[in-house]
Amino acid sequence: MSPLLKDYLNQRIVIVTTDGDCYIATLEGYDKSVNLLISDVRRRSDGELVSIALTLRGSEVVLCGLLTNDQPEKLGPLPMLKDTKNKIADEYLIWEEALKTSSSR
Predict the structure, then answer these.
(1) Nearest C-alpha neighbor of 56 from the set 11, 3, 19, 85
(2) Which one of 3, 34, 73, 99 is most buried, by most CB atoms within 10 A?
(3) 16 DSSP β-pair partners
């Protein structure tokens, strides 16, 4: 992904994060881990300014694409994207049981 990002430098991009958030921003820089340095960060749904400058870890980025001139920066109300972190309630209890089972064999 990183070699292609150089084509997006200093241009408006769309970013979807693992939290399901969708942002529009200007790509200022990146590294080999796809950590992104972005500016003029706005929510895609309502155009509200989130931050003047922001660094996103590569592990938080699901999608990064170029926003073309014919695409609107603000889309209006959008359905909330599903959280992609796969949180499991009381996960530690499941692992405790799995470890008990495997150690008793």
Answers:
(1) 19
(2) 34
(3) 22, 63
Angle of CA points 23, 26, 29, to nearest 5°:
115
Tens of pLDDT along the chain (105 residues) come to 455 888 899 999 999 988 888 899 999 999 988 899 999 999 888 888 999 999 999 999 988 888 877 666 555 555 565 665 666 778 778 778 888 877 766
Task: Enter the CATH code of domain 2-103.
Answer: 2.30.30.100
Amino acid at 98: A
pTM, entire model: 0.66
Alpha carbons 77 and 100: distance in angstroms, whole number = 48
Ramachandran angles phi, psi of 34, nearest 5°:
65, 25
